[in-house]
Amino acid sequence: MKAVYFEKHGGPDVLQFGERPNPVTRPGTVKIDVHASSLNHIDVFLRGGLPGITIPLPHIPGCDAAGVVSEVGEGVTGVKVGQRVLMNPSITCGKCEFCLRGDATLCIHYQLVGETMSGTCCEHIVIPAENAIPIPDSMSFADAASVPLVFTTAWRMLITRGRLRAGEDILILGATAGVGIACIQIAKVAGARVFAAASSAEKLALAKELGADILIDYATEDFPKRVREETGKRGVDVVVDYVGKDTWVKSLRSLSRGGRLVTCGATTGYNPEEDLRHIFFRQLEVIGSTMGSRNELMAPLKLIWAGRMKPVVGAVYQLKDLASAHRAMEERRVMGKIVIKVKD
Ligand SMILES: [Zn+2]
Description:
The chain is an alpha/beta fold and about 350 residues long. Helix content is about 25%, strand content about 25%.
């Protein structure tokens, strides 16, 4: 099958377009003809190489996919050949202590498609049948491939871990990146007032269109100062910070007493300065979150299908041009999701 893969870690140039073995369907799995994949920051990090994560090489990247079921393995019920589906990228064991207590994202055998497993930037993938989620005919493959990783991550971070409630104030940094776009919309549905911080007027216009109430250009404005002004010196209840090193201390300063800082990543570096006095004197919570369970994917999907939220596709690249798509993401040129078109 046609695929993009890399044989060594490095810049976008290590991505090669060529032939890879067609995966084989096993009992309990389904094969999906991939129509669309989408790019996430983790793809760029994994391609460059991450300390502590060993990837079998050559590796096909890509954590998101939507397409059509082309084969079902022995014993599979509930999914049929010809069905349009999107993929839940989290593979969990269902048997460990954490799976059994309902925290599948803490599974000790947790695997993410496209991370330690072969990914979706190719023509065919084989996944456990329960990871294939049927989609309505009205949903395009590009939109469907834009949802799983970012909306699941945002839902778990804001609703499950961050306990966001109606009437609270939330500050979202990097508001027009993939996760940010999901966070703005989920926070609005939850009834919060949304402070969106992004680095250009164009990005803030998109944040506004998605429902953000207060717009902060943090390339030119000191965002903790603006937050204090807008909240009568109180601060916000929740800050979403996956920027990391560049913004961490400012995020802590933007919180109200008893506020919660939620994080699912650190795109500018994972060793920020920390002022522990903020945390104990003002009784702040720092809450980590990563990916989400099937329920945390289904919750935003239902709201998208009901027309209350939407995926935002910022650019579409052909599979053979994946290296250009990686460059666009690294240079932060695209607002919204970068979709990789595999098949019409
Ligand atoms: Zn498990």
